[in-house]
Amino acid sequence: MGLFKRHESWERTFRLRSSYGASKGVLAVFFWLWGIVGLLFNAGTLFGLTGNIGVGTSAYLTATCLVWIGGMVLFGIGALLAHTDFDGERPSEADYGDVRVSR
């Protein structure tokens, strides 16, 4: 029932490969290291509190958490926006749709 079907104007045989440089990997490693170490540091500081907690302690915890979150955002967005190179390739016309079985 191809009566109302439009003819496709795009090519189905185009392959797209992506490759990225070292900067994306370095930023991703910094993202994970900053996240794990910062989380452990903040959790250790929070759970290590004893006695009365004043305004100074609250300000210190807030500042360390904000620096940690800022680093996560910086390294995360940096890793996402790092240059990704896309290579496209088309199979040659002789190989398109060609099935050969040989011994």
Protein described:
This protein is mostly helical. Helix content is 51%, strand content 12%. It is built from 2 helices and 2 strands, in the order βααβ. The protein has helices at residues 22-47, 55-81, and strands at 15-20, 84-89. The chain has a two-stranded antiparallel sheet. α1 (22-47) runs antiparallel to α2. The two termini are 40 Å apart.
Gyration radius, to the nearest Å? 27 Å
Give unreliable regions as ranges. Answer: none
Strand order of the largest sheet: 1-2
Mean pLDDT: 80
| Element-by-element helix/strand order | EHHE
The share of residues in helices is 40-55%
Main β sheet profile: 2 strands, antiparallel
Summarize the topology.
Layout: E1 15-20, H1 22-47, H2 55-81, E2 84-89
Antiparallel strand pairs: 1-2
Helix pairs in contact: 1-2
Give a nutshell description of this structure:
With 103 residues, this protein is mainly alpha-helical. Helices cover 51% and strands 12% of the residues.
Summary keywords:
two-stranded antiparallel sheet; mainly alpha; 103 residues; 2 helices
